[in-house]
Amino acid sequence: MEDAEVDPTKPIPAFYCCYLLRSTKQRTSLYIGSTPHPARRLAQHNGDSKGGARKTAKDDKRPWEMVLLVEGFTSRVAALQFEWAWQNPKMSSQHPANRHQLELGAGDEAQGSSGTQPNAETGKAKHRGRGSRRSLKAHLEDLHLFLRSTYFSKWPLKVRFFNADVYQLWTSWCDRVDSLLPDHVRIILDGDCPKDHLPWEDDSRVQRVDHIKADYSHIHDYVEKSHFLLDDPSDLRCKVCQARIIPSEDLVVVCPQANCYCISHLLCLSSRILDSAREPDQLVPIDGNCPLCDKVIQWSTMMQELSLRSRGCNESRKILRKAKKGRGRTPGAIHETSAADRGSAVEEAGTRAAGVESSTVGVSDSFDMNCSDDASLDENWTESLDIDIEPDLLDRPRTHNTGTSRVEIVIDDSDCDEMEELG
Q1: Domain residues for 182?
Q2: Is Protein transport one of the keywords (predicted)?
Q3: Could you tell me if residue 9 is inside a domain?
Q4: Cys bridge to 111: 52, 115, 155, 334, which one at CB 3.0-4.6 A?
């Protein structure tokens, strides 16, 4: 993957997902892909717009339906890694994901004879008793396995189901397998899936794929708030170490909660959350508690805002211009506070929150603050990729670059025809 060098001026993408397509005419025909814009990609697969993969272009299989999404990837390469592993569960065990798959499969009692075992001579995984890996059931089993693997289980992923029959097959497998998904992996029931199957009220339902917001609109208010708080750096202090913050020199994170004015050094807050987690092998948080308001904050959301602020200046300006126009019509609560009053509010809130200890639910080792794995890859990227993904790709030293010379928000879809799963 040496050709996939990182452009350090790119912010974390607004949205990226892996998806599973199913033909509505030949329901055994399936396709796995990845995209930053699922509605556009589905239209391409169905021939409603230019593009799409060659193997989904046959009229006897169109239209396709997007039955589930795995979302929450923080770069294109992250999604491509998951897509490749999901498409190729029987490939070389030297692939990082498959090494962990074999580790899990060897000790998973629920799989029994259908588990995976490595061949001592070739090092490749052999699936016993499952037959073709192209079935919907097999894809769901592999998905469950990857979400539990040591590598992918550290990512802040969500699985969104649009079809009730697919979700029913998923729950049947979950009831059989002994191992549970990590607590932070969220299941979203959408489309025609039953609403009452989850113990909490889910406000993430969009009903249809074309209603998914694949832009930065979900953090517009957050971006505006951060700009407001950091606009006057005369007396900003970290709520963890109490040292002065210089936004132009320091990596600074802002609490995403609407009414919280907590500002911290990136390393101070991450260290605090990780120390609370007491997991020495975990490197980057998934979520934790704000040291000021004590509410749970999502690390991926803060990293997305930070990357926009430090490497997405053009996009940030667009967001702020929209906010300024919006304030002309409907003033926001945050703008009713002057810069002087803001300092007092922060100080008062800090006094109220003194002594509050932070806690965490999980952590992730897949984040790169500089989006170092968000590379521009052509559609033949797999031709330059050996069966074994280079281990040092994930361990490569990370550097902070807050300067921006070019911003490119549009990210291409994956179109790896040679790796698609079709029945």
Answers
A1: 17-215+378-419
A2: no
A3: no
A4: 115
